[in-house]
Amino acid sequence: MLTFRLYVLFLLLINPTSVLKSRESATPQGSHAISASGNVFADFCKHLDDVENLRYVSENGVCIGWVQGFTQGVTVTDEFLQIPKEKRMMCPPDEVTFGQYSRIIYKYISDHPERAHMATRYLASEALMRAFPCSK
Predict the structure, then answer these.
(1) Domain boundaries 28-131, CATH class
(2) Sign of CA dihedral 10, 13, 15, 18
(3) What is the mean pLDDT of each successive set of 10 residues along the chain, which is 136 residues long?
(4) What CA–CA distance (Å, rounded) separates 123 from 109?
């Protein structure tokens, strides 16, 4: 088993795009579609806690990568526009990880299936605003 894992890691180091492209083609919508809806986000992020299974490395990477881009984009926008802390969309503690953000968004979508057809950015905004409200 260890030999197989080392072999897969070796393949990823030598040519990561071939491994990721084969996974992306196996996913009907491709990784670019994660922004399309909460349904697609949930499909990509449903195996976040399964870190031992190399089968989900690509999906988990897409999930956490999207969340990192989203949350950092929100933070940079707030800072660039000099929005006072009490008026920001969210006020998470500094210790929050991108995996934690991802799980919060995933849980919100799972708990609100009637909204899962909406764009991921709206659902992520709602989830993080509720999880990390700014005190007034």
Answers:
(1) mainly alpha
(2) positive
(3) 46 47 47 87 91 83 93 93 92 94 97 96 96 86
(4) 7
pLDDT at residue number 134: 92
Whole-angstrom Cα distance, residue 90 to residue 73? 12
- Cβ neighbours for 81, distance < 8 A, ≥ 6 positions apart: none
What is the rounded CA–CA span in Å between residue 111 and residue 40?
15
Q: How far is CA 118 from CA 15, 49, 131, in A?
A: 35, 24, 19
Q: What's the pTM?
A: 0.75
Instruction: Return d(Cα 91, Cα 133) in angstroms, integer.
Output: 6
pLDDT of residue 31: 60
Please work out, in degrees rounded to the nearest 5, the angle formed at the alpha carbon of residue 57 by the alpha carbons of 52 and 74: 120
Is-contact 120 37, C-beta < 8 A?
A: yes
- Strands of the chain (E only): list them: none
Domain ranges for the chain: 28-131
